Structures
1.
Amino acid sequence: MIAIIDYDAGNIRSVEKAIEALGENAVVTRDSNQILKADKVILPGVGAFGDAMNRLHEYNLVDTIHEVVERDKPFLGICLGLQLMFESSDETLGVKGLGLLPGKILRIPDCEGLKIPHMGWNSLDIKENQPLFKGVPNQSYVYFVHSYYLKADNEEDVAATTEYSTHIHASVAHGNIFACQFHPEKSGRVGLKILKNFIEL
């Protein structure tokens, strides 16, 4: 069973539907016991960094997420979920993230001819031997919606990158921790393959 953390962030239902389309049981919950009983845990979401961290604290989910990671359960952040996993974000200065991995969330620099937020399909430069991208061809296209991007401190944590105004760390993997800045649940067959790979970890 896969727990999808519910903290009143957008896009949670579409992740649930994608998991169910792959034949897996998904439960959308903010109940700590249910989350800790799950085989795997997903932190999806769209919205503002500061608001999201406030809600995670309000629902007592910060310690729960840390415990999931400490118990070595596979944990996947999607879009805002990826950003929350790191230390801080330019979007809400002074608000600490979950700090699961070292790195910062920066605003995508303005660039002539490119719109921000970045909304659309971009190709991924995928590193070799990444469990999340098993069977996914390099330069596959996935769907992004974001104005801020990850700059991870440790290059070895980066599983895939993309280019949009700057060099973007589009996916990370570290032990049992995985994350995607893009939306696998909105990325067609490629996205479903990535989710299937997570389910099969």
2.
Amino acid sequence: MKKAILIAVGFIGLSTAANAQLATATATQSASLVLSNAIALTFTGSGTSTGGAVTLPFSTVSDYANGVTSTAQQLMVQSNLPFGVTVNSNAANFTYSGTYTTGTTMPVSGVLKLMVTANSTGGTVATPFSTSSFATLTNTAQNLINNGAYGSNQLFSIQYMATPGFTYPAGTYNTNVVYTATQQ
């Protein structure tokens, strides 16, 4: 009987413990993300904002008569807002290095041309540029891509063509082409 009473008291104790409420406490904290506008423009070949040098060698009469075309150069825009891209040369004339002292002032405009060979930015190629023909570069910023979509992997490719003709002496003529991505 004592065992029965002890068993009964044990069940009552377990039943009471099961019905007991445990104390709880709650803490709340606010987490805020402070986002800034962000944009980057890089050459995919180098992974930086400085692309590899593009060399256009003129070796034959046919090169001088028809011009020389570069390989495609790919750029990537990363932006958290829609964007546009402009392009221009850093100067009106090429810089010259060589042995001649006269006749070496070559204008960029009319000699160096650009074509967009691929565009997956979600935007449109701006006139006068296109995906089917070359347009002349100038030292004034020209729209290249309009209304690019925000994203982390917005790609476009360009190709250069140079047509100096037979007017300039041998040597190396150089200019920097500047691409600028701006959020809209």
